[in-house]
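Notes to self after the call with IL:
- keep both proteins in one doc
- input above output, always
- annotate only the second one for now

Protein 1:
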Amino acid sequence: MKKIDTKIYILSTAATCTMIFIIFFISWYLNVMKANEMREKLLDFQLTIEDSQLEMLYIANYMKGDCSVLESGVKTLSERLVENNRKLSGFDSSTMSKSEYDRLKAEHILIFAKLWLLYLKMKNECNSNISTILYFFSINSDECIQQGYVLDSLYNKYSENLFIFPIDADFDLGIIKILKERYNVTQTPTIIVNEKIKFVGLTPKDKIEPVLFNQTS
């Protein structure tokens, strides 16, 4: 009887170990596949960034004075950056090195900054009815998450005439430091509308919306 019990014990132990190994292997394999998939998306995103940089360079240098073409080009690029921003937000940073992720994020922020400057140029030179929002936020802040939903709602409504520049206030980048100093940003969320109107703290849609296209404010 003892021999049978011992045999059963050995078989059950072996089966358990085999199952643990299989589960571990499947988990490892899925993580590797996920990492490879994320890296492919990362490479695609980097190509999109490079393409956007060239497009922006062309717009800035060869569309001067042609307001209709400039507006069309800037809006098209803006739509692409908004989509890219959503893709970047969906990246799992744990599947890549921190330096790799931070570099990608920095490049993306710099493109947004350049496009924001193009929007300001377009407003001044073409008298365009465009509103801009600088949105300073902190990651993992509940108020900032809620503020993001409010701004998404505004963008969905006014996408043709509204540009939102999302800025991670805690990210170490020169342009972010300059903008924080210029607008005296000391907490998040903070919103700057058309370089003039400042909202600090979680701000509802009904307070932001009336001043978006009021250029005299």
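Protein 2 (the one to annotate):
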Amino acid sequence: MQTVDKAVELLGYFSQRQPEWGLSDLARATGFDKASTRRLLLALIKHAYIEQNSTSKAYRLGPGVIRLARIRESSTPLDAIIQPLLESLVEETGETAHFALLSGNTMSTVGIADSPKSNRINFVLGEEAPLHVTASGIVTLAFAGEEVAEPFINAGLDRFTKYTVTNAKRLRALLSSVRKLGYFINKEMYEEGVCSVAAPVFASGAPAIGAIAVAAPTSRFDKRRQQAIRTATVKAADRASVGLGADGEKTH
């Protein structure tokens, strides 16, 4: 693996749930040896993408990441476009809505609007999940193109619940079906007791960049609710795509 690849992979281990890492713990998590991990961290510190907590000596994301995020947001204002749609979805469905972006072989949660219910599905900003186990991942995999889907499928499909699709042929057939429907309903493929509906989001001139989804406990996910949530989710994803310049390229 090239040094740049390793550095980018290392950055991906920092999240809202795990904002700081000690050197030894980060080396174990990444699978890199301790000396290599330290060299990568020092290089990232040099460019302000990582900084070291002066008290705990743990490593955390630095101001360089914030600068890039602000540039990204100013050129493609995802939050301004997506967040109102997520909040409207919560009002309409009563369930948690979220937006996830394609990030390598995972989906990364970048927008959340929580359900007001006490019994709800919770997400964490920056949390990542494999592409083949969430509704967001399945629809993005279906519409991101074969150059994304095939390498992921051929690398092997881990099982998370008894409902996870781990057979490559079955997953390809599922993706073909999703392309025709334009959405996907996930029933406990990643976590038992959790169901969700997702539809792809496109940017101008690009394949799917991510997906908008609504997640609910299985106990509230009957057929009538599925249909209502599906309709609202597809509509929100279409609006997001238009907002990101994909007018005329939508799937619905």
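Annotation: The chain has two domains: 3-68, 76-243. Strands lie at 20-21, 50-52, 59-61, 96-103, 106-113, 128-130, 184-187, 194-202, 208-217.
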